[in-house]
Hints:
There is one protein chain. With 242 residues, this protein is α/β, with parallel strands linked by helices. It has a domain at 62-219: 3-Layer(aba) Sandwich (Glutaredoxin), CATH 3.40.30. 27% of the residues lie in helices and 17% in strands. It contains 5 helices and 9 strands. It has helices at residues 22-43, 121-137, 154-163, 177-181, 209-219, and strands spanning 62-63, 82-84, 90-92, 110-116, 142-149, 169-173, 186-187, 189-193, 199-203. Strands 6-5-4-8-9 form a 5-stranded mixed sheet. A two-stranded antiparallel sheet has the order 1-7. Helix 2 packs across helix 5 (209-219). The longest helix is centred in the N-terminal third of the chain and has 22 residues, at 22-43. The radius of gyration is 29 Å and the shape is elongated. The chain starts with 21 loop residues before the first helix and ends in a 23-residue tail after the last helix.
Amino acid sequence: MTDRPEFTHRRVRRGLIGPFGGRQLLAGAIVILVAGVLLVIVTTPLGSVNPISPNDPQATPYLLGAAPTNGLRVGEVPPELTITGPNGQPASLTDLDGRPVRLADLRGKAVWINFWASWCPPCQSETPVLRDIADRYRDRGLAVVGISVQESSPSNVAAYVAKYQLGYTIAADSTGDVFRSYRLYALPTQFFLGPEGAIRAIVPAPMSMTRAIAQVEAILPSGVSPAPGAASAAPSAASPGP
Length: 242
């Protein structure tokens, strides 16, 4: 009888879950975690100034660049609305009718400065809010000043104003001087000034009706009562298109 090789039985190694070992499972979990973090980063909207919650959704602005490190701050008195005139000398920004627009002339009033452009979708979406707030609070000491930037011509701004019947002050910053002096990086951007002329709030994002009312109510001059029926005036539901 020939010798046969001895039979031996080796135990089959099994992973923690099926064929996968502990190291493989750990590596897979890390990959999934990193992918989830990247997904959150790339899908988070840019330009919000407050945390966005399901009960307070906010639209995002049209970004023109990175936020400056030396931007204007709350508590500061903003620069006057000055441009470079045809003769190379400083001149006051003018509205669409050629009248000077000076912040010094608005002292004692609450002032909402709105930087916008007619080609900017977020700006278009908040136009009804500006129009209704300007009408509602005009008799309570609010002055709304819309400053358009990066427009092809003042006539385009005028056409937009006429189409949507905007009754507040509108100026075209054709030279970009005001845009640069206010160190903007997004459209629309809002500056809310108190009656003393200092910045009370800066919002680099479109305004909803609720947020606009809260900002304006906080800066109104004291001692001015609402006109009869003004507080209950219903805002317009119309929204301009592109």
